[in-house]
Structure formats: C-alpha cells, structure tokens
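Subject: for your reference before the review

Hello V.,

The reviewers asked for a structural picture of the protein, and I figured it would be easier to keep everything in one thread rather than splitting it across files. Below is the amino acid sequence we used in the manuscript, unchanged from the supplementary table.
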Amino acid sequence: MYITRIPNRSSPPAVLLRESYREDGKVKSRTLANLSHLPDPQIELMRRVLKGEALVAPEEAFEIVRSRPHGHVAAVLGTLRRLGLHTWLSRTPTRVRRVVEAMIVARILDPRSKLATARGLGSETQFSSLGERLELHDLEIDELYEAMDWLLTRQSRVEKALAKRHLQDGTLVLYDLTSSYFEGRTCPLAKRGHSRDRKKGTLQIVFGLLCSPDGCPIAVEVFEGNTGDPKTVASQVDKLRKRFGLTRLVMVGDRGMLTEARLREDVRPIEGLSWISALRNPAIRQLVHRGSLQLSLFDEKDLAEIEDPEFPGERLIVCRNPLLANERARKREDLLQATEKELDKIVTATTRLKRTFRGKDKIGIRVGKVIDKYKMAKHFDLTITEDRFHYQRKVENIENEAALDGIYVIRTDVPRDTLSAEDAVRSYKGLSVVERAFRSFKSVDLKVRPIHHRLADRVRAHVFLCMLAYYVEWHMRRALAPILFDDNDKASAEALRKSVVQPAQRSAKALKKARTKRTEDDLPVHSFQTLLQDLATLVIDRVQPKPDGLPAFDKLTTPTPVQQRALDLLGVTLDV
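And here is what came back from the structure prediction:
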C-alpha cells in the first residue's frame, strides 16, 4: 500500500490510499480510500508508517516522569500484614491504623524523625511507594503524633496478642534492660542514671524488653532514666502473670537484675514462678572461700553442679570458659598498663626539678581521675604525701582475681528433672538474643535514639513503635536467612559444640556463605540492610507516552532472581 497525490486541475490534489497487485502478469493498482479530508500531518504519518519508517525515536517515545522505590515496601508491608499485626492494632481498616502501619514500615526501611517520615509519605515529597499504597497522600505531621497517642492505648492489647501467639504455660521468658540517651530536658521520664550508651552526664530513659526463648519480642516498658534494674522486676512479673495469664513460667534475667532482694520479695513468694540468673563475682569468691567451689573441678571438665549452704533450695551450676578467661586476662592487663602509664606521668610531675607538682589534695585529685577512668583502684596500693606520689600493683589481689577468670555460676530453682544443667546454662546464655535486639533497636537498624519527644506518653509510644518494627524485622530475618549472612542451619552449628559452655559455632553452610559470598542457589549473599536496598531498586515508574495527550501509566520493574527469591521466602507479592 502507498499514498499518492493526484492533481485535480484548479482544486487541491486528491490524496488516495492505493495498493498494487499483479493480474495476468501485469502490475495494476486500485484505490482503497480517499484521504483528502485528513489533515496533512496525519497523512504524513500514514505515509511514513507505510514506508516502514520510525515515527518517534525509541528514547523519545516515552518519558519517565517519576520513579517510586517499591520492592522493599512490598517486602516489609507484606510481612507486617502476613503476620496479622495490622489486625491486632484494629480490625477496622481506619486511616489512623494505616498511619501506624506506615510508621512501623518506615522505621525498618529508613528510620527518620516524624517530620521526615511525614514528608516521605506525601505525594509531592514521597521517598517510596509506601504513602500511595496506604492511601496517605495528604498526610500531615500532626496525624503521626495523633496516631502515636492512638497506638499507646492499644499497647496492652497488642502485647497480649503477642504473648498468646509466642508464649505458653511453663515457658521460658527472657528479660533485660537497656538505656537510651535523650535530647531535651522537659520530659519527666528523662533522668540521669547509669548510661549503657557511655554518654556520661546526659539525660536518658530506661526500657525493658520481654522476649520468648528464641528472641521474639513480646512486650516493652519504659522507665525513668534513673531506675535501677532490680526495681523493674515486680512490674514485669505482674504483667506476665495477670495481663498474659501465665500461671507457670521461668523468668531469665541477668545477675544485676534478679538480685537476692528481688528474688526474696518479688519472685519466690509467687507460686508457679521459677527463675534463672547468675552470681556476681563477690559471691563466687565466697564460694571459693567456703570451699563449695573447688577450682580443681575444671581440670577435666568445664561444667559442674555444686551446693552451698548460703543458697538453700537452689542449684548452682559452675562453668569455666577458657576463651573468656584469656579475654578477661588480656583486658585486665591492658587496663593495668594504661593506668600505670597515666600514673607514671603524675610520678614524673612530682619529681621534676622545675614546676614540681605538689600538694596532697592536688595529687590526690589527679590520681583519682586516672583511677576512676580505668576502674583499677582495687589493684593498686597508692601512697600520696605533700610532695611525693608512689604506687605499686597488688600482685596477690590480681592473682586471686585471675584465678576466677572465665568462671561464672548459674543459679536457678528449677528442678533437675525439669531442666538439666546444660539446658539451664543454655537458657541463661539466651539473654544474648535480647542484647542483639537492643543493638538493632539502638544502632544497627531501627535507631530508637536520639529521642526528641517531650511528652512521657509519646516517648512510650515511640519505643513501642520500635518494638513492633523489630517484631516484623525479626520474622523477616528468620525467613530470609538462606540469602543473608545469618546462619540458617543452627541445629548443625549446635552439634559442633562439645559443650554448652564453649562459644557458639557457625554451621558449615554459614561458613561457606561467608567465604564464597554466594548462596546454595548461587545467588549473591546479602546483609539485611543491603537486601532492603536491593529490593528498593524494584521501582514503579510513572510513564508518560509522547506525543502529549496520551494517558500516563505505571510500569513495575521486573524482579531479578535474588529479588524474586527474597519475595518468595517472605511469602509476599509486589501487589500489596
């Protein structure tokens, strides 16, 4: 077919659509349509099409007017909904519930301030597809704070649902605390206390986390920043017994929390409540002094169960870890040498000829600063006069302490026929998963700090929001373990340990992943954060065809093999 123009005397030429054909060996043509009524631009387009010419260069045919990262949103939001967390918040799909969902997902994807989160959800300033998927295009910052207030009223309800799913009568419950420094001075929860962030002199809050034996977060509670660990035990026991309805359980807490006073007043009087903790170093030294603990026990084994009259009705399980002993000896020697280096400077200052450093009080203050810095006062004899300073190590004291390096004692009231000595040690070591949760909370993933909220309830809501985000992340990590550097064959790893006292081992699969950086399916191995970044390259493009006037449409990036594998492991789709 072709287009031809036929002269028409004084009138405009006729524009005809014709085709050629062959009849009896002769080439003939016939008219298919008269195109004279069409505008010249359309006729020219038809001519070019019939000649096989490209109408528009490929790079000019379409325009990408906006790209919204979507894959990581689908992964996290899909997991949240697969877990049913949104229904625990509210069975009615209200806007405030969607706002809370958005804050939980955003805390995992890109933890920011509430103002930055609101901007990331808005249609004009969105960072991803999260806002449009939850229909929050016109979100205002005040809605986030209102949603936090709404969320706090549902904390008890959500925690009860978590306990029902992950805890049952007779189970172990892990409990530990941490602190987080605070910005501002008006929040009544912000107090000065023992800082686990090593931020001396700053205001802080303290929050405690209850977890299942495998580290799944169940409940969180915020306390004033000057609250001591033991003072939080009673409220957690009450929560487990009354709110969660557990009549029998074993509470696992560290030696600084389940003190003798707390056990006597808050734990032992409660029927059905057992506990696992550990002894402090002074108590261990007393065991040695009374002869209950013989260091010769560890000549052939690293675990033994003993009895002591000071702990009636309790089981004492003594363990010695040689690697821990070596590390403590190294650390002690490093601190001793660092202390001596600073003390030598003071000795030099008191003996030099010019500008001699004098004065018993002045020398004492300067020595005190050094001793407080390295916490080594118990290992030095100090002699301070008006014009001299002398020190020496307490060799016998250091040797006595070194003899107990690597030794720790687990204490529990759980009977032997219920819990073996090995399982008691393993249960206490389980507190490490709570510490791992705190690392995720504070620095690695969720970044609960710094905290800027001024109202106590807003601070509580902020910490609870971070706990819910960690709950989603915890399940994601378990599901994605085959393509992460995480160990997804812990049963084999546990079999490699000759004793529960020894450090945990990594399985052969985990070591191979770390060495080759490839999975068993020959896919690249990721960390959790880099996998989210990889998924973020799955984008929804807003495509505008050219010429103008044609409707725009959305086009989703095709997943790569590793992206599709991640979505399959999570059990989610891109259509959330």
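For the response letter, the relevant points are probably these. The two ends are 49 Å apart (CA to CA). Residues 323-403 form one domain.

Happy to draft the paragraph if you're swamped.

O.
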